[in-house]
Amino acid sequence: MSKTIALLGQPNSGKxxxxxxxxxxxxxxxxxxxxxxxxMEGFFTYNNEEYTIVDLPGTYSLSANSDExxxxxxxxxxxxxxxxxxxxxxxxxxRSLFMLTDFIGLKVPAVLLLNLMDVAEGMGKxxxxxxxxxxLGIPVIPFVxxxxxDYPKLIQALSKAFxxxxxxxxxxxxxxxxxxxxxxxxxxxxxxxDCQTQFRSDFWLAIKCIENDQNILNYCKEHLSKEKYAxxxxxITDVKRGNLHTGNCKFAIIHDLLKSAVNAxxxxxxxxKFDRIATSRLWGKPIAIGVMILAFIVAxxxxxxxxxxxxxxxxxxxxxxxNLLTSIGAPSMxxxxxxxxxxxxxxxxxxxxGFVMGVTFVFSIIEEVGYMAxxxxxxxxxxxxxxxxxxxxxAFLMGFGCTIGGAAGTRIIDNWGQRLLAIILxxxxxxxxxxxxxxxxxxxxxxxxxxxxxxxxxxxMFIVMAITAKVFxxxxxxxxxxxxxxxxxxxxHKPKWGHIFRTTFSKGLDIFLRxxxxxxxxxxxxxxxxxxxxxxxxxxxxYKIGIAIEPFTRIFGLGWQTxxxxxxxxxxxxxxxxxxxxxxxxxxxxxxSTFGTASTTANLNEILPQAISKAEALAFIFATTFNVPCLxxxxxxxxxxxxxxxxxxxxxxYMVMALLxxxxxxxxxxxxx
Amino acid sequence: xxxxxxxxxxSGEITSIDGDTRFLSRITSIGLTEGCKIEIMQNEKKQPVxxxxxxxxxxxxxxxCERIEVK
Lengths: 673, 71
Fold this sequence. Notes:
The structure holds two protein chains of two kinds.
Chain A: E1 3-9, H1 15-23, E2 27-31, E3 38-46, E4 49-55, H2 67-77, E5 83-89, H3 93-96, H4 98-103, E6 110-115, H5 117-122, E7 126-127, H6 129-136, E8 140-142, H7 151-164, H8 174-178, H9 185-192, H10 202-210, H11 214-223, H12 226-238, H13 242-258, E9 262-263, H14 273-278, H15 284-327, H16 332-369, H17 372-378, H18 380-384, H19 393-401, H20 403-409, H21 416-426, H22 432-446, H23 450-476, E10 486-489, H24 497-530, H25 541-548, H26 550-555, H27 560-568, H28 575-585, H29 590-594, H30 604-611, H31 614-625, H32 631-641, H33 644-672
Helix pairs in contact in A: 9-10, 9-12, 15-16, 15-19, 16-20, 16-24, 19-20, 20-21, 20-32, 21-23, 22-23, 22-31, 24-32, 25-27, 27-28, 27-31, 28-30, 31-33, 32-33
Chain B: E1 11-17, H1 21-29, E2 37-42, E3 49-53, E4 56-60, H2 62-65, E5 68-70
Antiparallel strand pairs in B: 1-2, 1-5, 2-3, 3-4
């Protein structure tokens, strides 16, 4: 049976750095049962003993303000963790020890980590961990999570803590609450003593009741006699603004813990010159956008070698495989499967891997340095309109480059519902490939009129995002859960390159394997539908379906050819021209043009305007733009949301949305042209 | 005065905080309590107010600043 350590700490306390540092690539990501909150688990072995690390969501307290907080405290209250590792930011100890004080009363063995000791020392702060340990009665460990050499010491300390099983003794801190005259601490405690459990003391329950925590009050209602609950209710109604009183007690505890244990120079931190500009109303946004453009370029440079390999795979493998299979007389179906499909699947998965790693790399730098919080700050009011945090702007800006990057970029959002909403919204942002293909198409059909199509797409991007935020926003970012920004802007740190590279690469293989799965399944389905032995499209299943449902697709303004190209655009946006070319000139089959092995015919701009009306073309351009971005983006989305249900929901939503837009555009086109 | 009226350079302490349980819990957990010392670092229109408290740089959106009284 493995031992479970839960990591508990406020945002910016270095929790994910510690998690990655302890577990490396031995991680498992899932969801907490019944909640849209991400569950991160990892493993490591020490002295032949297996340890499970659970990375609890980063929250500021253990109240019941969000699913994240409820998941966290329920997990602890059920005694799931054998040891809790509390993290605090040593450079801002007073504020970041709040989580510790909110934890007192949960009867689980714990250790306190004073993380970011290097930063604290850099500020001239001297912290006496032994003195704090003496007052707390649990191990207190000074630590630097981004420094690999600190880990052996930590793991030793953790394994020792498992033997000693030291639990915070709430009796030491009771007087603070008892002496606060505005709260009836003892009276409440006496009542709730009836429903305390092995892991959740009457002390903890009493404080939560005084804080008017509805979740806990409901729990008490279920577990107390009617009379006792009535007495409790009466006591609680008399308490006004209980949080402020308990807050004062908590900070008084912290004050006494740190008294004579921390030696800090009298210098006061100021807003640096850069910060003054980076958070200013005038320059904050341009700087943030500039940083994101730079980040995109760096991500591309990082990904370039990997992308180059992925581009080579089909070229290097397809020909030889084809020759080999022909020489041994393999049936042409098998040939197509192995020599065309297989190399492309591998190529797609490698390129996704490259891009996600590139984005992870640059975002880790921005986050680690501390600039991410500034971006969140300047874009807060704008993103709030979509029900999102300011940080999500990074994902959208990344999305203009590549949807995969956008989806991977949502990882910086610490609220699961909002993160899923951001992933969904990123799909509405046309990526670089779309911005390259659509002008070409528009040019072919509308000549100089094409200049109106691009602003039109941009306009509709905002409209689609607004609609989508409405459709999914109520569930994923409920109005009552939306709150204005109250956050800490961490001080700037120098990035720890070793840590950033380790984080980036340890994810690489995992990304590749997950991508491979989704890409294989979807590619295989598309291959089965579009494969023909003769290369004649009329023999494919997709053609038969296309013809059969053409009366239906005509409602949306699409003929069977354009509808097929629309379907192919969900695999790859670059495929659109090739597929149209294949269908209208008979120059290749749908499958190989979608997977990029067939070339586009040169006289496309003569054939297409003759075959497709302007209204249909307009409908088609909008339909493909807002269709599923591409197969790899779909795989990336599945990887980010770990939910097949949500992935399918998103796919379905965008297909319907694209066809609705197609319908609208077609009818506008009929009037205009 | 209200927190959003305090100009950069202002230093003083929070005299009262008002609001629902949820807000009180959030504002307390970031370290802002009645009686705690603060210094305003930046206060521009349509942006959260930036202040320094307990050695931390904290952003509080304007609407919530209306519920915080400083002296």
